[in-house]
Amino acid sequence: MTDTVPPLGPSPLSTGDPQIRVDAARTLIAAALQPLTQTEVVPLDQALGRVLGVDVISPIDVPAHDNSAMDGFAFRGSELRQDADSAWRIASLVMAGDPSPATPPPGECVRIMTGAVMPAGLDTVVPLELCREAGTQVGERVLLAPGRLKPGENRRLQGEDLSLGRPALARGRILRPADLGLAASLGLTELTVVRRLRVALFSTGNELREPGQPLDPGCIYDSNRSSLSAALRRLGVQVIDLGLVADDPAALQATLERAVCEADVVLTSGGVSMGDADYTRDLLARMGEVAFWKVAMRPGRPFAFGPLRRAEPGAPPAWLFALPGNPVAALVTFHAFAQEALWRLAGATAAPVPRLTARSVAPIRKRPGRTEYQRAIVEPAPDGGWQVRVTGSQGAGILRSMSEANALLVLGHDQGSVAAGEPVEVWLFDGLV
Questions:
Q1: Beta strand 208-209 with 220-221: parallel, antiparallel or unpaired?
Q2: CATH classification at residue 288
Q3: Partners of 238 in the β-ladder
Q4: Measured between alpha carbons, how far is 95 from 33 in angstroms, rounded to an integer?
Q5: φ, ψ of residue 206 in degrees (nearest 5)
Q6: DSSP state at residue 418
Q7: For 401-426, what is the mean pLDDT?
Q8: Terminal Cα-to-Cα distance of the chain (whole angstroms)
Q9: What's the chain's average pLDDT?
Q10: What total number of domains does the chain contain?
Q11: pLDDT tens digits, 39-81
Q12: In whole angstroms, what is the distance from residue 303 CA to residue 321 CA?
């Protein structure tokens, strides 16, 4: 990839406006990205958090047979009496794991354990605690008062969870612990998943130092790679850490070229503002295309997105997400734009960021014309609803307030100031309060 490579031609990414609204930026990014299609097979115990690459079709019925949902007594529901006690004699004992037992004659029942196969012809189970009298041995009596049970209760039907040939898990699902249990219940030992998305990560700036190094006058430690790398790992992507890059056009171009060769996505922080030492935006224009480089938001206004051309003819581009350098702005733009985009690229049909409506504990000043993301704490309100309060100073470099927060309080583009008690939109971190 050199300066002699012709620029990319006209693209639907072009907006004609270097600064766009947040909702327009999110829509444009989602429309531009095409999910990965390459898959691999992994053992079941390595599939957590991966994206399922193909539909899983059930090879069996689950459960494999009608079985009891209770410890109790199985009998014919047609023998229940409404005018007097129903009575049966215990014909046999059926444990979970036993083969299907013989069907008892009319007027008899079987003592049955949870999960045990229901004998043919028996369709109802009464739990021990509902019986007026409950024998424990073959030949003893079971009595049930009228009106305590209906025919068919406490029986699990064959295939009621999953039936043979029906879809069990859909392609694009981000696999959770319950999904792995479901796959195991089908007898599966491995799953086909989409290959991991590869994300190259680096920070730019002459002032940055690695944690552990001496801190020269005027310099700061790089926190962005630590927080962004952690956020990426939680998404299950493969992180390629390219370290710190100086504010030097040649060094930045060399790093971008390496990133394009090795990764599907290039995630940078710093270098997209209007300063004289900010080269990322200009290099993006030369190596690919600038879709936009400013978003009407706070924090995070300097944010660039676009494709970077690969050397191989016809190869799909690597996508650049150039985040601001301020630590909070970098994380906010990651949550607002990159997180869902990376899931989409990884082939996932992930749900949007979890959101809820909560009442603001205090008034919040805000002018229309930009979207604002404030670090906040969501907690139960005294009346049983939700309330939210900001975590203090909202400066883009104050990472402590982000660490203390459990959500982002989102004030929309056209929204003005908020009064105490007014409902506001909240984006939950990790989907938990």
A1: parallel
A2: 3.40.980.10
A3: 198
A4: 54
A5: -65, -20
A6: B
A7: 95
A8: 46
A9: 90
A10: 4
A11: 999 999 999 999 999 999 999 999 999 999 999 999 999 999 9
A12: 8
